[in-house]
Write a structure and sequence with these properties.
Layout lengths: L5 E4 L4 H12 L4 E5 L19 E5 L5 H11 L3 E4 L6 H6 L2 H24 L2 H6 L1 E7 L24 H20 L3 E6 L1 E3 L8 H10 L4 E4 L5 E6 H14 L5 E4 L4 E3 H15 L12 E4 L14 H6 L8 H14 L1 H7 L2 H16 L1
Helix pairs in contact: 1-8, 2-4, 4-6, 7-9, 9-11
């Protein structure tokens, strides 16, 4: 931490807003560039309203002139790139925005970051970092008995979202090797926790269970993910920024492999305990299997030994503790839920889950 701000992209989104809240609470200063799309929610940042250490800027990461202007004005010590289109189902239906944001947007940021970094001198230049936040999905899928993904696992993306993030990772790598831009890349496993939109598995299941609606599970529910509580992810990013070796990639995982069906059953048990129903009984009776999505990877798992060994980070919460905190958060923030459930959100849920189940 120093007295200079950092520039964050996508800081009104799920992971970005959690990081912003953590960083400012720890005494840091942030310039937050966000386009306020469906994935960005200014309500996530209400706790920082009026805080001089948080400057919110409405803008597009593909706007090179705007990015250059922000770098000149605020002279940040680092750029942390969270902004991304990230929902696999949306990438299947509408891939264009994923290519624009995840590939073109990352390229624009790198281009402007290089110009800015080249203008720095002395300690400012030595300290500057460009940290790119990516995903485990770039590695493809794992067989049931295969070892977890490591930082040297070959890339093999199987969906449009993963392909766009793989492209952005390669651009970051190329800017380090070609121009010596001091980059860092983190690849994380599936996040969950406060402020996640209820189109993703865990918040969708919590919401539907509370409202006693069907719980749509893709295929046989056997797809396995490594689950990471978002606040643990944010602490890992901060530590990589402070201690990571430039040009390196760090995998961040929760060491919590579970099938989707196991996750849904855990959520049902928690909702039954915390918000018992007088009519439905056991919420697991609401589980409905729906046709699988195209290109659905069977298993992801992360080997996070490098970040633990080199930086000393490890997750602080078990899956059981993190899921309980998450369910409690959604129970306590019904107003936030109502505000994010716009007409566009309802249309998306209908198209992606209800129509799928009807086919």
């Amino acid at each position: 931490m120093n007295n200079k701000p950092i520039l964050i992209t996508g800081g009104a989104g799920f992971i970005g807003s959690n990081f912003v809240l953590q960083w400012v609470q720890a005494g840091g200063s942030i310039v937050n560039l966000d386009l306020y799309t469906y994935a960005g929610n200014l309500e996530n940042l209400l706790a920082l309203k009026g805080n001089p250490e948080h400057e919110l800027v409405h803008g597009d990461i593909c706007d090179g002139s705007l990015v250059a202007e922000l770098l000149r004005e605020y002279r940040p010590s680092a750029i942390l790139h969270f902004a991304a289109e990230s929902h696999v189902d949306r990438s299947i239906a509408s891939p264009d925005e994923f290519i624009r944001t995840n590939v073109q947007g990352t390229f624009t940021l790198l281009k402007q970051a290089r110009h800015y970094w080249s203008s720095l001198t002395g300690e400012e230049k030595e300290a500057f970092r460009f940290l790119h936040v990516s995903t485990d999905e770039v590695y493809g899928t794992l067989e049931p008995d295969a070892p977890p993904f490591s930082e040297t696992t070959p890339y093999a993306p199987n969906n449009l979202y993963a392909a766009s993030k793989a492209a952005s990772d390669h651009l970051v790598r190329a800017y380090f090797h070609t121009y010596k831009l001091p980059t860092l890349t983190t690849n994380c496993s599936n996040n969950y926790g406060p402020f996640q939109l209820p189109e993703k598995l865990i918040p969708l299941m919590i919401l539907n269970a509370l409202e006693e609606k069907p719980l749509p599970v893709y295929g046989d529910g056997g797809n396995i993910r490594d689950w990471l509580f978002v606040e643990d992810h944010c602490s890992a990013i901060a530590q990589v920024l402070a201690k990571g070796r430039i040009g390196e990639t760090y995998n961040i995982g929760g060491n919590n492999e579970r099938s989707n069906l196991q996750i849904v059953r855990m959520i049902c048990g928690l909702v039954d305990e915390l918000a018992p129903s007088k009519t439905i009984g056991d919420r697991s009776n609401l589980i409905r299997f729906v046709p699988d999505r195209p290109g659905h990877d069977r298993r992801y798992a992360m080997d996070a030994s490098k970040i633990m060994r080199e930086i000393g980070w490890r997750p602080s919460l078990t899956l059981e503790t993190g899921l309980r905190k998450t369910v409690e958060w959604y129970l306590e923030h019904t107003e936030w839920l109502e505000h994010v459930r716009t007409g566009a959100y309802r249309d998306w849920i209908h198209r992606n889950y209800e129509e799928r189940a009807a086919r």
